[in-house]
Design brief:
It contains four helices and nine strands, in the order H-E-H-E-H-E-E-E-E-E-E-E-H. The chain has about 180 residues and is an alpha+beta fold. The strands form four sheets. Strands 1-7-2 form a three-stranded antiparallel beta sheet, covered by helices on one side. It has a two-stranded antiparallel ribbon with strand order 3-4. A two-stranded antiparallel ribbon has the order 5-6. The two termini are about 40 Å apart.
């Protein structure tokens, strides 16, 4: 909650300057049972990444620890298991709830990076249809950060992917 005033001040400064800023949106889906997805075609993480990348202004997707996992060793990155009172439990969730393309029963986590919108008030260099060098300025609506509007879209896309996975799972297993 302490970050809200910081972001408000940052966005107000960006807006007044007629510029824009990027954002990273994180989504977490809890209650996803183990077994949704497929090990080859129809991997749950691949479908989730494709859906999230299809959102306007999205430029990157991470599942679980994503790019940070490249700096880890196999021992550090492994989502080890132990027996809990109700069965096996994971000790970590580096994989973001998806192992081998199939949900593990842990929360499914992803992050989406959004670029700063190109509709800014600052003059930008370009070339017109005749090949002439021009300077242009966007006029009209100006979003200082599309990430604000992207939150419900990221949630909805994640829900759609999980609903599809549920229906495919039910169709394949009858349950």
């Amino acid at each position: 909650a302490g970050i809200v005033p910081v972001w408000e001040a940052h966005l107000e400064q960006v807006r007044k300057a007629g510029s824009s800023t990027g954002a990273v949106i994180e989504v977490e889906a809890t209650g996803v049972p183990a077994g949704w997805g497929a090990p080859l075609y129809g991997k749950l993480d691949a479908e989730l990444a494709a859906a999230l990348m299809s959102i306007n202004a999205a430029k990157g997707v991470e599942i679980g620890d994503g790019f940070a996992s490249a700096a880890l060793s196999g021992e550090e990155n492994a989502d080890e298991m132990r027996m809990g009172p109700e069965g096996p439990v994971f000790l970590s969730n580096h994989a973001g709830g998806i192992l081998g393309g199939i949900s593990s029963g842990q929360p499914v986590t992803a992050r989406v990076a959004f670029k700063p919108t190109s509709s800014i008030l600052t003059l930008r260099r370009s070339v017109n249809a005749d090949g002439e060098e021009i300077d242009l300025r966007t006029k009209g609506r100006h979003d200082p950060c599309v990430g604000i509007r992207a939150v419900p879209v990221v949630e909805a896309m994640t829900a759609c992917v999980l609903a599809d996975a549920f229906l495919r799972h039910r169709g394949q297993t009858g349950g």
